[in-house]
Inverse folding.
């Protein structure tokens, strides 16, 4: 093939596709070799490539909420090891105050060298099953300082010039509850980085270092152009929205998340001033995670197919005052910051809905809920079960919310029930829709889901991170809010007990835990809903005739 | 003289190949008759027999590839289908795996499930993963569910209970109750169609089987009837997604296996061609109007995938983002499909970046040059501008309007990118190559295989036009374009063998399992496979291959590795070594200290073809081509006077490009820097090295 000119849009498209294919290959290598459910089935992980300057040039189509955090982590590694980065090195970190976002997320970076010169980086983020600390699963809400949350790893060399640094492996081995799974998953993350390195070097072999660098720079610019183009098309102004977390599990007070999005020409500022001060409980969101949430949401309003790189962040500024729940200072506890991530996304979409009312959905519901269950099986072997539950999308300006799907800002799968049951002392007794849930609207919010677990271990610790009991998923344009979440222990028995939204309790063999997710918010006045859609929902047994009459004023006789 | 007939029915065309005992082939391409596909088949068969001067009774075998099942799903014209499932889980089918097929798309929508919620009924029962009964089956709840479904007029019922892979007892009891109360209703038990762990995948597969069962049953029944009326008693065999064939009778009972019937045949044909030309490693690339489909033959063997999705948006990329279609977990030939075909539409986004596909102009309105109302520039329009296609007519006779293509490419692409018409069109052509390359990458590089180790076999209406340039970008050295590339899939039908693939989940730790236990489980599968073949009327002993899906304990994804021939004391060690090697080859590392878990045992039973039927020869035409066209090959070469040949004009010695070979079904492009010759089987062989 004759060499193509760097300014050639076709060359750019070719290289963009090639980079995407490499990061996909990395993600596939990670998922297929991982050990923990959360990585291999739920896909709570991301893979990326950075250029020699550490700029994020491609991310696999995995987890948008991770995307924006890579540049900060990358910067910490490059800053700390300046002049000491060698071929064969692999770096690891999880410290939320030095590049990470919470301890379970391990960031692993491998510098890529060609003829002794650094030409790029491959990176993987994996949510590890356990990092020690007081709560199995590493997502407890009840810590009040980072020191209670487990093993804290500043940027360190995991491999030094190709040799594993045994001290780090040994430290991880001694500090986590399930070392075989965690170290296996660390190996998978390293394997993903090797896959990325191989692909990236292949690309250089084909196009040459300079041409590739020029193209990645041009692709960053292309993403930036698309973002600026999209922002320019938005009406200038300031748009404020506040959403709430019910509480942090320690103090009973509701926690406001406020954002003001200012659009001025082709620039956008997302300012979280007005959000709550940092809280005692573990839901504080480190700044990189807050930035990630902003970028992930705004991306939904950028048309076209921008390359998956950091170029589109450039016209977007994030302001998050230090010492708040969206930018905590040490030694804040942050393990359960995922909850705040989802709430920041809800808040951002609330503000974006004012900018683009014809495109943005009412409040989605999903991700808030984390369930971990840890203990020892009959043979005294430790186990940690961890999963995050997802619900439904909010009603949209032109159609209903999707019933049952991942949150828009992550892309999770659920865990197969038969796999869970063959690996853990758990029986799942119910997983499905809750009829008559979700927010009524011209286009209704997606239904709530329910999942019920029966515990078969003799004794274990159950830890819950849930929310949306008093501050419900909001409706838009006259649509009603969604329905509240619920936690029940031993429902329908004399021992039935309502559990707090955030708690760590001890459970015995035979105990049953039921979680009902919130239902998503509705869009538009329910009375304007097409009666045919109401009828369809009744026919589908998604709502009852009584509910149809009460909320939509439509009388349906149940027979077809 | 005896004959065999291959019939490949697609959405647009019905391709037929009639082969005599010497291997000489006659081909026909007819428009498909969507009202009753059998009409075109019978018409084509009559014409071919007339042509051959043969009575229908001389046809000894009919092998059929069909998209009837696929279309029933895509157009949602399947049966009214009910699902019976474990109490608490009727929404599993609709919830699926939750993932979004596209990110950053607030308009995302999943297709509605094939069984609406109202027809998904629950029964009281429960098994655990060891196959032990936790809650006995409540027959009353079954009767209630069945009667409810029958009252709704359901024609077909799928039964999928939790952990039925470990114990199918309850499903069988439900099946018996359905048959007793409604003998005419089709029944699909998940434990029979897919005794494998993972409830959503098993449910989706069982439901899809139930959904297409009555449709395929009617279709194949009618087809057999009409074929008998033609005057032949030849057995009618149907191509499966896995590349084997089974009797039409089996197809009517297990229709989920014939979903990807058509594309599979092309890969079978490629495997046969690869054997013929002595290339153990080959990539098939089949590019039509809408998509490019790639698959790999490695060390002579077709690669298979454990699952695929049907009816989703054709994905132009990430294999990670599933969830836009209906998942089928059945062995299928591993085919990667990318939205790049002749009709793929070219767009330019707000940042000035240019994209090809995945949207297609299809057959209507078609590319701009068809002059049938299409206004969006397509790959075919670019090819017309570049002089690659005859400016006024496609080889099949369709008239073109080249001026319209030129104007559209100039307005929609060239002016917006600030390029000349030719450079813009050439850019579009290269992006078409890139789309094709993406399909090839998905089955090679993404699986750790280097495409340079493979020969590329290009077919389909557009494959031979893009293949050589695409091959160059992946540094593939040799391309083979078989005779009659446009009906190559129908040829493949005639190469297929009767084959059954069976699987059973066998969850054990390898090191802790006595080999005798593995041997017993494998033997049971073999007996089942032989039984199936016996029922189909095959008396001879089949060839059996055995394999196991293994993973390191704790992983979720298995790799399939062959089982050693003898299962004895050294089995565990041998299998561990094979698996470790495969894991390292695929992912770059192995974990010898970790225990290995056996997940599934697999058995394939194959009936070898009797008497080794002669290879199919479609022959090299000399008609139609001639002269030259001015064709453009990018700034480096500019526009070159390019000879237009018939296949028969090529000789055994290498002839340097640029060359164009115009044929009835396709045009082959040999770009400058490449060279072509014709081999002794009338294949066009192109080498990219010049």
């Amino acid at each position: 093939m004759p060499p193509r000119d760097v300014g050639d849009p076709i060359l750019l498209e070719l290289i963009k596709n090639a980079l995407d294919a490499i990061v996909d290959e990395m993600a596939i290598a990670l998922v297929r070799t991982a050990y923990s459910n959360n990585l291999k089935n739920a896909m709570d992980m991301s893979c990326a490539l950075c250029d020699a300057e550490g700029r994020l040039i491609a991310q696999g189509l995995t987890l948008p909420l991770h995307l924006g955090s890579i540049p900060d982590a990358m910067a910490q590694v490059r800053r700390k090891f300046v002049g000491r980065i060698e071929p064969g090195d692999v770096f690891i970190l999880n410290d939320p105050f030095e590049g990470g976002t919470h301890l379970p997320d391990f960031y692993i970076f491998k510098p890529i060298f060609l003829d002794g010169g650094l030409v790029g980086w491959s990176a993987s983020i994996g949510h590890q099953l356990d990092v020690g600390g007081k709560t199995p699963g590493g997502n407890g809400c009840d810590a009040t300082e980072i020191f209670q949350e487990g093993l804290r790893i500043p940027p360190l060399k995991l491999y030094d010039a190709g040799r594993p640094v045994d001290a780090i492996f040994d430290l991880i081995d001694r500090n986590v509850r399930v070392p075989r799974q965690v170290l296996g998953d660390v190996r998978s993350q390293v394997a993903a980085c090797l896959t990325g390195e191989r692909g990236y070097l292949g690309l250089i072999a084909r196009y040459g270092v300079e041409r590739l660098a020029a193209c990645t720079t041009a692709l960053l610019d292309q993403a930036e152009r698309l973002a600026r183009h999209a922002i320019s098309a938005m009406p200038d102004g300031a748009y404020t929205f506040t959403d709430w977390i019910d509480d942090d599990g320690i103090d009973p007070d509701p926690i406001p998340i406020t954002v003001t999005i200012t659009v001025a020409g082709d620039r956008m500022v997302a300012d979280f001033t007005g959000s709550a001060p940092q809280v005692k409980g573990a839901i504080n969101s480190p700044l990189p995670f807050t930035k990630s949430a902003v970028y992930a949401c705004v991306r939904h309003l950028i048309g076209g197919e921008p390359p998956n790189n950091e170029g589109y962040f450039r016209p977007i500024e994030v302001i998050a005052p230090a010492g708040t729940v969206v930018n905590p200072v040490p030694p804040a506890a942050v393990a359960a910051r995922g909850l705040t991530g989802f709430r920041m996304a809800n808040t951002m979409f609330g503000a974006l809905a004012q900018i683009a009312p014809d495109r943005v959905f009412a409040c989605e519901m999903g991700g808030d809920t984390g369930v971990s269950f840890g203990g020892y099986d009959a043979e005294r072997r430790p186990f940690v079960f961890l999963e995050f539950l997802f619900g439904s999308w909010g009603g949209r300006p032109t159609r209903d919310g999707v019933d049952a799907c991942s949150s828009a800002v992550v892309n999770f799968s659920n865990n197969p029930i038969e796999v869970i049951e063959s690996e853990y002392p758990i029986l799942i007794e119910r997983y499905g829709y809750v009829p008559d849930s979700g927010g009524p609207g011209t286009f209704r919010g997606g239904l709530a889901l329910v999942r019920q677990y029966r515990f078969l271990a003799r004794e274990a610790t159950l830890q819950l991170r849930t929310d949306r009991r008093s501050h419900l998923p909001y409706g838009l344009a006259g649509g009603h809010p969604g329905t509240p979440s619920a936690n029940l222990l031993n429902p329908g028995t004399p021992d039935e007990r309502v559990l707090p939204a955030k708690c760590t309790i001890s459970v015995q063999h035979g105990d049953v835990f039921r979680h009902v997710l919130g239902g998503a918010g509705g869009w538009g006045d329910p009375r304007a809903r097409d009666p045919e859609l109401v009828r369809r929902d009744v026919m589908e047994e998604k709502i009852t005739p009584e509910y149809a009459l009460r909320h939509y004023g439509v009388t349906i006789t149940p027979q077809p | 003289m005896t004959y065999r007939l291959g019939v490949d029915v697609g959405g647009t065309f019905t391709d037929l190949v009639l082969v005599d005992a010497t291997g000489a082939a006659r081909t026909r391409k007819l428009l498909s008759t969507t009202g009753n596909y059998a009409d075109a088949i019978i018409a084509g068969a009559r014409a071919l027999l007339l042509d051959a001067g043969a009575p229908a009774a001389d046809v000894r075998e009919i092998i059929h590839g069909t998209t009837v099942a696929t279309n029933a799903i895509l157009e949602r014209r399947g049966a009214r289908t009910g699902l019976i499932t474990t109490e608490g889980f009727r929404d599993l089918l609709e919830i699926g795996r939750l993932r979004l097929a596209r990110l950053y798309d607030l308009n995302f929508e999943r297709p509605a499930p094939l069984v609406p919620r109202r027809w998904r009924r629950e029964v009281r029962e429960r098994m655990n993963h060891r196959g032990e009964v936790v809650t006995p089956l409540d027959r009353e709840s079954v009767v209630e569910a069945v009667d409810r479904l029958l009252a709704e007029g359901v024609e077909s019922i799928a039964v999928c209970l939790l952990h039925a892979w470990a114990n199918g007892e309850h499903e069988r009891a439900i099946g018996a109750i359905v048959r007793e109360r409604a003998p005419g209703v089709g029944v699909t038990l998940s434990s029979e169609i897919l005794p494998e762990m993972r409830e959503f995948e098993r449910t989706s597969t069982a439901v899809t089987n139930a959904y297409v069962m009555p449709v395929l049953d009617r279709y194949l029944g009618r087809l057999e009837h009409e074929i008998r009326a033609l005057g032949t008693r030849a057995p009618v065999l149907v191509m499966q997604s896995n590349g084997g064939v089974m009797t039409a009778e089996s197809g009517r009972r297990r229709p989920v296996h014939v979903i990807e019937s058509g594309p599979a045949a092309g890969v079978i044909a490629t495997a046969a061609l690869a054997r013929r030309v002595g290339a153990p490693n080959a990539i098939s690339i089949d590019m039509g109007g809408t998509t490019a489909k790639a698959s790999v033959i490695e060390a002579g063997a077709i690669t298979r995938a454990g699952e695929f999705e049907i009816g989703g948006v054709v994905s132009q990329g990430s294999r990670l983002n599933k969830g836009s279609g209906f998942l089928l977990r059945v062995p299928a030939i591993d085919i990667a499909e990318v939205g790049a075909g002749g009709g793929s539409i070219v767009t330019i986004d707000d940042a000035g970046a240019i994209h090809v596909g995945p949207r297609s102009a299809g057959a209507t309105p078609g590319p701009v040059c068809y002059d049938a109302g299409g206004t969006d520039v397509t790959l075919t329009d670019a090819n017309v501008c570049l002089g690659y296609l005859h400016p006024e007519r496609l080889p099949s006779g369709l008239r073109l309007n080249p001026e319209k293509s030129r104007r559209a490419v100039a307005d929609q692409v060239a002016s917006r990118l600030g390029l000349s018409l030719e450079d813009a069109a050439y850019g579009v052509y290269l992006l078409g190559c890139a789309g094709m390359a993406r399909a090839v990458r998905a089955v090679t590089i993404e699986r750790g295989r280097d495409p340079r180790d493979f020969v590329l076999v290009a077919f389909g209406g557009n494959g031979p036009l893009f293949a050589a340039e695409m091959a160059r970008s992946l540094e593939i050295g040799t391309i083979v374009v078989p005779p009659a590339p446009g009906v190559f899939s129908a040829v493949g039908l005639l190469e297929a063998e009767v084959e059954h693939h069976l699987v059973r989940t066998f969850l054990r730790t390898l090191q802790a399992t006595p080999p005798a236990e593995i041997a017993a489980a494998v033997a049971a599968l073999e007996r089942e496979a032989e039984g199936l073949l016996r029922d189909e009327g095959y008396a001879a002993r089949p060839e059996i291959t055995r394999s196991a899906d293994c993973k390191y304990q704790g992983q979720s994804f298995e790799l399939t590795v062959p089982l050693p021939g003898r299962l004895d004391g050294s089995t565990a060690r041998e299998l561990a070594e094979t698996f470790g090697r495969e894991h390292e080859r695929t992912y770059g590392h192995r974990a010898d200290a970790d225990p290995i878990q056996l997940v599934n045992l697999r058995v394939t039973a194959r009936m070898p073809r009797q008497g080794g039927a002669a290879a199919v020869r479609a022959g090299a035409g000399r008609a139609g081509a001639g002269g030259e066209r001015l064709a453009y090959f990018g700034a480096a070469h500019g526009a070159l006077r390019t000879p237009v040949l018939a296949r028969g004009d090529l000789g055994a010695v290498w002839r340097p490009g640029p060359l164009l070979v115009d044929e009835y079904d396709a045009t082959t492009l040999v770009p400058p820097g490449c060279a072509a010759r014709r081999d002794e089987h009338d294949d066009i062989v192109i080498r990219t090295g010049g």
